């Protein structure tokens, strides 16, 4: 017999019953299984296995009914066994019995630190060629246990994350077979794990089962050479396994399904010789991060832990000191573990956005890579956000200059120390050093004070909310107040506008706003200028009479005539000087020396001589004009507003007004507390704003005369 070297450990069901509920299969089944039928089914399995291997028995004990599931005793390779540490207290009583059996049978027993759950061969399965170990986590076993397995068993560990609580142990949905085949149920795993499986197991060797088979525990199978023993398989599955050279032997185990186990769970293969082809390695990576702030009442800590688990990692909170007073902040240290480097990086990027940082004593320099080609960053470059960012260089935090989103960070050493600067890809130069990875990066977030956070949201500028109707008036009141403050202290307001400002009758209001000194720069496309000038010259906007609201005969030509007149004299400023234009938004800009920039697009008529058709030049011009802005008013221009949003760092108040809620949501959803969105007609908004501003002005006057 070729298989006589193979041995299994089993435990008779003398005391088996469903006594408690620790997995979904047990729900509704407490004391519903028949001991008699269980014994009969167990015997069936026992005899079947004995035809192909040797079976050893461990004595069943009272009070630990799940001891029949010997797969959970531990994980063994060669002479070493990693003893299980059960997640549930209901099963922890089994540990000493299994430990005694292993010791009596000559195994070296390794025990994991307390509070680090790991459920043995139920959650860790050797590749049948011995190349690596597949290890599950997510329900019972902790990801942090995997590096211990790699160390003690000297084998590469591939961590798989379980997602479906019905398949809470790896062996309920995953079964490596002889010759590198794999029987498994893909939906039980997260996307990353499925990718990992597909990388290691070629397609022709992957036998994915349908949900019915999975639910009948077809993956919970015992593979001995060419035979596969399981509870039940569909005809289709038997046929596919047959085609791969396997023979399926079914043996009913329905009484054990009531406890969430079947053939594989009831056995532990105790002969797992080391095979020549293997190398120790665990791809599992850990890092410790620190967070500070109003961690609890702002929900920051919850968000951080969600990011870790949803991203496929696991965590351990090492320290947490709670701020005692309402205003005092809390501190936390969290150990993050991820199954691989790339998963770790994805999680870290998100944690950094939340304000997490590495322990400074652990990271002296964030890794750098060199630009090898002008305008192209090295792979893995860190993509910047709108938040002020600092990077570790020479064991110090260096603040990144020119912060904006979607850039790379260039680090340079100068005689006065290291510098870091945010740079667009197209501006990168060969030889420059770029931040790659996320080891030594942090974003600096303002800790919002508790009062601001809980302040009456209805009237608050904060809280990136999108509002409509009822709140509009209150918000406009607040914006008017802010505009007034900014003007009085010599601050900077930038307006970004679309042609809708003109079509909705907002031109007069915006002109007035400029006249009154509330606007320090104006950005837009060709269209807002064309329609403003058309209105000034001909009283129409896209051919509509703006006073009477009707279209004018031949009006559709008006805007081209306006363009043509400006082109003749060379610029908008020249047209104002020559009195071709004597009112309107751009007239006011020229008269009051307010800089403006017009960025071209594919749909532009003309264009006006001022419109920049070189978009890189236009982007640079926009960036120059928004520098130092305190507030940006975005009035009905999706294109130009998003463009501006992309180059604006956090901390600048952004007000986005658009009749289309989608535009408003997109812009106020940058996660920056300073943004506010208003869904309304822009003409109406400007008219309300002017009313509020004049109310404020009369209030000031009144205050002065009293
Ligand atoms: N009732 C047991 C538990 O929930 C079933 C164990 C099944 N064993 C296994 N290797 N999947 O722990």
Main sheet overview: 7 strands, mixed
Bound molecules: arginine
Distance between the termini: 110 Å
The CATH homologous superfamily of the largest domain is termed: L-arginine/glycine Amidinotransferase, Chain A
How many domains make up the coordinates?
Answer: 4
Note the total helix count: 22
Content of β-strand? 15-25%
Q: Helical proportion? A: 25-40%
CATH architecture of the largest domain: 5-stranded Propeller
According to CATH, what is the topology of the largest domain? L-arginine/glycine Amidinotransferase, Chain A
Q: Which blocks of ≥5 consecutive residues have pLDDT under 50?
A: 449-464
As an assembly, this protein is single chain
Shape: elongated
Strand order of the largest sheet: 21-26-24-25-23-22-27
The count of DSSP E runs of length 2 or more, i.e. the number of strands, is 36
**Cα-atom radius of gyration:** 35 Å
**Average pLDDT score:** 90
> What is the C-level CATH assignment of the largest domain?
Alpha Beta
